[in-house]
Amino acid sequence: MTGSAPITAVRVSAYRYPTERPEADGTLAWGATTLVLVEIDAGEHTGLGYTYADASLVRLISDGLASLLAQADPFAIGAVTDRLWRAVRNLGRSGLAACAISSLDTALWDLKAKLCGLPLVTLLGARREAIPVYGSGGFTTDTADHCQRQLAEWVEEHGCRWVKMKVGRDAVRDINRVAAARSAIGDAGLFIDGNGAYSSREAISFARSIAEHDVSWFEEPVSSDDLAGLREVRRAISARGQAMDVAAGEYAYTADDCRELLQRGAVDVMQADVTRCGGISGFLQASALCDAFHTDLSAHCAPALHRHVACAVPRLRHIEWFHDHVRLESALFDGAPQLSQGVIQPELDRPGHGLIFKHADAARYRV
Ligand SMILES: [Mg+2]
């Protein structure tokens, strides 16, 4: 396998894909999703990676980071990513820099698998053939009716065992929304995501106020930057015997961020996002840390990109089947996963992660 063709080109482009209607969670509102796509050529193969971030990454990558990949050995992913992390030292590793490196790292793993002629999950080492997903939407801008229909469809038509909705705008309305969601989904697991909208005291009180609706997951009840607050919420919930996991980790950009969440006892379940945490390499690190802390891991968003690595790592509970990303990935990629009976599977008849970008269809969204 050594002596393969060196990397000859890195291309980067950004696409702004509108949502169906205005959307919001507890702390943010949006009307589009920006995808930053990276393609890396070596020999006759092209590796593809992406992140959900900001179009400014096009310049960061094309004018800077891409030069660090020129003529590099595509099998030496560790050497390349070491150079990338060193290069962003003065920018700060987290945030946009980590998103840029995540997209490049993922493209490198796709390229390596293609050069080996293997599906990515086979290269990584499969632990399972399929992975369950949970339906994720229930925006605070949606009517109760719409939210009920969306969540019920995931459960009844697609076999999802769990669904997630956003909370955090208005406590009284949110209690009614959670009750309505519960009545629409029968015995399926109900998750809520606060996106950091509450103080720890408010979050503890809100968790108590919805106790009768059997919510089993409270994501980012307080800001992910407030590790003591996460831990306080987690302890208060478990002290009163409420079976509700506290989850966070979508803003873990480095192994240090993951370690802090775990070491400080901030989460019952860790989340990690391959488009932010350093790509496939970073996700493998996150999963190793979770294993060492005996804590389960859940993949955040970007379901098409998570399915191979999710089938390769230990302690992986599920992937988030996030409404916006499912729409975008099925529209702009050939080979996006099909949800059936609550699970998705890696495509094993294609090398790499199996995704092919539909450049012609995506052209109208290019930024
Ligand atoms: Mg979240």
Amino-to-carboxy terminus distance: 38 Å
What ligand species are in this complex?
magnesium ion
C-alpha-based Rg, rounded: 20 Å
Sheet-strand content, in percent, reads 15-25%
Which structural class best describes the helix and strand composition?
A: alpha/beta
CATH superfamily name of the largest domain? Enolase-like C-terminal domain
Specify the CATH architecture of the largest domain: Alpha-Beta Barrel
The CATH topology of the largest domain is: TIM Barrel
What does this structure look like?
By secondary structure, this protein is α/β, with parallel strands linked by helices. The protein has two domains: 7-117 and 359-365, Enolase-like, N-terminal domain (Enolase-like, domain 1), CATH 3.30.390.10; 123-353, TIM Barrel, CATH 3.20.20. It has 13 helices and 14 strands. α2 packs antiparallel against α3 (96-116), α3 packs across α10 and α7 packs parallel to α8. It binds magnesium ion (MG). The site of magnesium ion (MG) has 5 residues, from loops.
Features:
14 strands; TIM Barrel; 367 residues; 8-stranded parallel β-barrel; single chain; 13 helices; binds magnesium ion; alpha/beta; Enolase-like, domain 1
Concise structural overview:
This protein has 367 residues and is α/β, with parallel strands linked by helices. It has 13 helices and 14 strands. Bound molecules: magnesium ion.
